[in-house]
Q: What sequence folds into this?
């Protein structure tokens, strides 16, 4: 019986993987310019880390986690997101004792039991950025500027930054009460799920996608109207810094997060022209999270971008990246030329060229077919006759012209030809 990949899990083959590499390359370049360092955290953690940091009553923890007991009887979970693990590492390695604060990025797979028919993957990849240890709005501005720069550098132009402030422990309780009493007045118009959860988590009703709930919540009280003075100033400074570098934003009062540890700045970036589900990334401040998982009270802010979604958006915007082609293909003709050909192809690779060798020295025709299929720029043919004369035949696979050159000059010849602007 043929064994297939697990449902909702996919292979990323050459042809597509180049786009992923491009995204990764740009991410590393841009993030490092802003002083962010890569952190690699484990793929699995104690289940309690996620239930505490993400929240027991969220969909992720209730329905979507891949949890299992290992041979030693420990309950473990494949990470459904990266923030929790990064914060755990921050506390565990006492990074708060370092001067200044830390700026991390993390690339890698996450795991959630999602419905594959909704275009979601059960193993999906994220770019995750976290700045931990500083509450200043300058950090918020820096994170957002870096995010927008990254997306622009990828080639996305029509981007909309949606911004909101959730307030903090001082001003949010009053907002919550106000929101609850508003919801209570419209309870019969809400979906059963919202009716059940609004007392516990009124902010999630703002997030509900059901038409009835959305209609009711259109006139709900907005967080911005309830901000205390420090929260208001934090937001104003952020807005001013963004304006200074030419980044506009839309105030989006529906942009909320249910958990208490999310504070102040929350954001989302929408790429235009992709229909309803066009958010490419979201994030925000989580000044209460580190404390929640047992660390000292520490502010933090970050965002996560889904790779699959981002690559789809980029393809929509016409991104194509060719697979790397061999620059030269060495075709040995006959057994006696095999050894010299193998030496030559190694020399070429040693000099930094992408070089391939033919595996069937008995048939020139089959080797040329493979060189064509690989898209090699040049093919070098090396047979007994060439060996005796100390020469090779070199064919330009595009133009078709063929020249004989001394074996000793092959390297210089190719290096000169490869220095074309297209390479
Ligand atoms: Zn609802
Ligand atoms: Zn406040």
A:
């Amino acid at each position: 019986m043929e064994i297939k990949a697990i449902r909702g899990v996919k292979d990323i083959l050459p042809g597509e993987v180049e786009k992923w590499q491009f995204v990764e390359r740009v991410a590393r370049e841009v993030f490092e310019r802003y002083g962010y360092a890569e952190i690699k955290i484990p793929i699995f953690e104690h289940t309690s880390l996620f239930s505490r940091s993400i929240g027991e009553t969220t969909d992720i923890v209730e329905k979507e986690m891949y949890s299992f007991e290992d041979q030693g009887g420990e309950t473990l979970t494949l990470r459904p997101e990266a923030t929790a693990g990064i914060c755990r590492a921050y506390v565990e390695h006492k990074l708060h004792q370092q001067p200044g604060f830390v700026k991390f990025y993390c690339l890698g797979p996450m795991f959630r039991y999602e419905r594959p028919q909704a275009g979601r993957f059960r193993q999906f990849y994220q770019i995750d950025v976290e700045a931990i240890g500083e509450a200043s709005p300058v950090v918020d501005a820096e994170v957002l500027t870096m995010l927008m720069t990254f997306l622009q550098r990828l080639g996305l132009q029509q981007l909309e930054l949606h911004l909101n402030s959730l307030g903090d422990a001082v001003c949010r309780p009053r907002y919550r009460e106000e929101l609850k009493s508003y919801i209570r007045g419209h309870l019969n118009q809400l979906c059963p799920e919202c009716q059940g959860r609004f007392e516990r988590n009124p902010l999630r009703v703002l997030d509900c996608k059901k038409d009835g709930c959305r209609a009711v919540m259109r006139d709900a009280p907005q967080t911005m109207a309830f901000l205390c003075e420090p929260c208001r100033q934090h937001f104003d400074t952020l807005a001013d810094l963004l304006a200074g570098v030419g980044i506009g934003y839309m105030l989006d009062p529906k942009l909320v997060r249910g958990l208490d540890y999310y504070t102040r700045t929350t954001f989302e970036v929408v790429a235009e022209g992709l229909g309803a589900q066009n958010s490419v990334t979201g994030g925000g401040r989580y000044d209460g999270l580190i404390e929640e998982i047992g660390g000292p009270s520490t502010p933090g802010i970050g965002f996560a971008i889904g790779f699959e979604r981002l690559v789809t958006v980029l393809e929509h915007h016409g991104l194509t990246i060719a697979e790397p082609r061999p620059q030269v293909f060495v075709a040995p003709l006959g057994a006696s030329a095999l050894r010299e050909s193998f030496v030559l192809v190694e020399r070429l690779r040693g000099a930094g060229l992408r070089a391939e060798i033919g595996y069937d020295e008995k048939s020139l025709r089959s080797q040329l077919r493979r060189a064509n299929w690989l898209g090699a720029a040049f093919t070098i043919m090396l047979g007994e006759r060439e060996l005796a004369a100390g020469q090779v035949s070199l064919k330009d696979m595009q133009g078709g012209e063929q020249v004989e050159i001394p074996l000793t000059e092959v390297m210089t010849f190719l290096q000169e030809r490869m220095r074309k602007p297209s390479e």
